[in-house]
Amino acid sequence: MWKVIRHCSVRASIAPGWAFHAVLAALAAGVLLSTPARAQDSIITYKSLSPELALDLARASLAECRKLGFQVAVAVVDRFGITQVVLRDRLAGPHTPATATGKAWTAASFRTNTMELISITQPGMPQAGIRNLPGVVIVGGGNVVEAAGSMVGAVGVSGAPGGDADEACAKAGIAAIRDKLDF
After folding, report:
1. CA–CA distance from 29 to each of 25, 26, 39, 161 (Å)?
2. Sign (positive/negative) of CA torsion 11, 16, 21, 22?
């Protein structure tokens, strides 16, 4: 319900209609000044691995594991966790492509190497529930790939005897393409 207040009046010593035009001008200025900010928020740019560079990374990781005598699978995902490349050596186990892909996806999704996730997701830790999420593979061998301070993807290796060996192959693959990552 509206209450009418008497004896209160505000008088403007300006020309009639001027206040309307002043408000309209202020609104127009606000819209014009905020438009570039909204346009900038609407479009983002990001760095991404090319398919060729993703393949080079997978090949370099596979080559390192072969050199060490391991038959593995290697997966490379983009920054969003979408698979770009999967390579499986001839004698790598049938579970290795899915495990390598899961490791790479986990590293990309949490923006953290899977070896680091092992310690922070132990039972009783605040992040322990991460282990129960669908698709998460918390075993060493999933590594984030960065270029100029931005994550551009991740690599996962599976099939070596232990996560430490998988991790070593993933790191060697990243080191092999490091000079190509500064794009």
Report:
1. 6, 5, 16, 65
2. negative
Q: Is the pTM of this model over 0.85?
A: no
Q: Are 84 and 78 within 8 A, CB to CB?
A: yes
- Per DSSP, the three-state class of 158 is strand
Residue pair 167/115 in contact (Cβ under 8 Å)? The answer is yes
pLDDT for 183 = 60
Instruction: Please give the biggest Cα pair distance in the chain.
Output: 95
- pLDDT tops 90 at residue 166: yes
Three-state SS for 24-90 is: HHHHHHHHHHHHHHHHHHHCCCCCCCCHHHHHHHHHHHHHHHHHCCCCCEEEEEECCCCEEEEEECC
The pLDDT value recorded for residue 17 is 59
- The bridge status of strand 150-158 relative to strand 83-88 is unpaired
Q: What is the pLDDT of residue 13?
A: 47
Among 10-24, 88-102, 151-165, the minimum mean pLDDT is found in 10-24
Q: Please, what are the domains in the chain?
A: 51-180 (3.30.450.150)
Instruction: Give the residue from 154, 47, 73, 48 showing the smallest Cα distance to 106.
Output: 154
Two tokens at 31?
A: 């819209």
